What we know:
Helices cover 19% and strands 38% of the residues.
Amino acid sequence: LKSIGPNIVFALLMDGPQISERWSGRYALTLTEDPGSSVLTMTSMALIERSNFNRPGGSRSIALWRDDTGRAVSLECPKGALGVLLTLSGHRLDELTIDGRQNRDAYAWRYSGHRPISLRNPDEETRTLIRWADPYNN
C-alpha cells in the first residue's frame, strides 16, 4: 500500500436504499472528509425490495458513492436489471502527513459513471434462475 490513510472504503450493508439522507450516507460523509478518501456503500436488491414493500415508488438505489469532492451519487438498479456496473478513475494526489512527510504516489478515486447490467435474450434456464433469485422483479 502506498497511501497514508484510507483512500477507498467498500461497505457491504444489510440495509434499505442507499441514499444521502439515510444513516449510511451521513457516515460516508464523515469518512470522505479526509483528503483523497472515497466510500462506496452497497446493499442487496432483496433488502431494498423488502424496505420498499409498503412504500410504492421507493428508491431502488443499491449503492451510494461519495468522495472528498463532496459529490454523492446514488446508483439506481432499474427494474429488470441484474446489477450495476460502476466505473471509477484514479487521480494522482499528493498526500501530506501532520509531520510534513509527503507521499506523491497516492491516488484519489473518482466516480466516472455507472450503468445497469441486464441480459438481452436469456434462455429459459437463465430466466428460471433469475425468477428464483429475484421473485419481485418478474
